[in-house]
Amino acid sequence: MSQQYREIITKAVVAKGRKFTKAIHKIQPTCKPSSILGCWIINHNYSAKKKGKKVEICGSYDANIWFSHHDNTKTEVVTERISYVEEINLKYRKAEYFDDNEVLAKVVQQPNCIDCKISSSGQKIIVNVEREFLVEVVGETKLVVMVNDLGEEDCDWEAEVDDEELSEIDPDFIKDLSDE
Predict the structure, then answer these.
(1) Quick one: which of 110, 27, 32, 21 has its CA closest to 64?
(2) Any residues with CB less than 8 A from the CB of 103 and at least 6 apart, and which?
(3) Residue 154 binned pLDDT confidence (cut-offs 50, 70, 90)
(4) Listing from the earlier edge strand, what are the strands of the sheet with 74-89?
(5) Residue 97 pLDDT more than 80?
(6) Cα gap 137→106, rounded to integer Å
(7) Percent of the chain residues topping a pLDDT of 70
(8) Cβ-based neighbours of 67, under 8 Å, separated by 6 or more
(9) Which pTM was predicted?
(10) Could you tell me if 152 and 25 are in contact, meaning their C-beta atoms sit under 8 angstroms apart?
(11) CA-CA distance, 56 to 60, in Å (whole number)?
(12) What's the pLDDT score for residue 118?
């Protein structure tokens, strides 16, 4: 019995990449802040495209900082739209692939404020943000599979449940938990 092999072309993940980033943003409020009361990162949007052996992610988010001013007698929220460009290196599984332009990008860690403080000059607010992405590149690749040279398989595709097997089925196999 000789073994036969066939080559199959299929779509599969041919490369992956992952990147964790910390970024520092300096935001200028309209008045001198006295203290920081809160900071939230919202409205995150991004798109990904392949550039050579890397994936470029272009994105943006809003940083909302709630702060007090005039010696903690008034509060205000300052919002700033922050844009970024992230390049993620790819690691390919093997060299033989075709048409690898489909990119799947997933946010592992949404942009998140890890620290927010007033600068040493007292005029700006410094926001530390972290984020993480996972990217996969889908391309066509070749698989080699072993073929059964016996032709037809020995299994019965039309297998039915007979009366004897049906009589062995317990129709009350699920307990009613409300009785307990």
Answers:
(1) 27
(2) 48, 49, 50, 55, 135, 136, 137, 138
(3) low
(4) 33-51, 54-69, 74-89
(5) no
(6) 12
(7) 86
(8) 29, 33, 34, 35, 36, 37, 75, 76, 77, 78, 125
(9) 0.72
(10) no
(11) 13
(12) 96
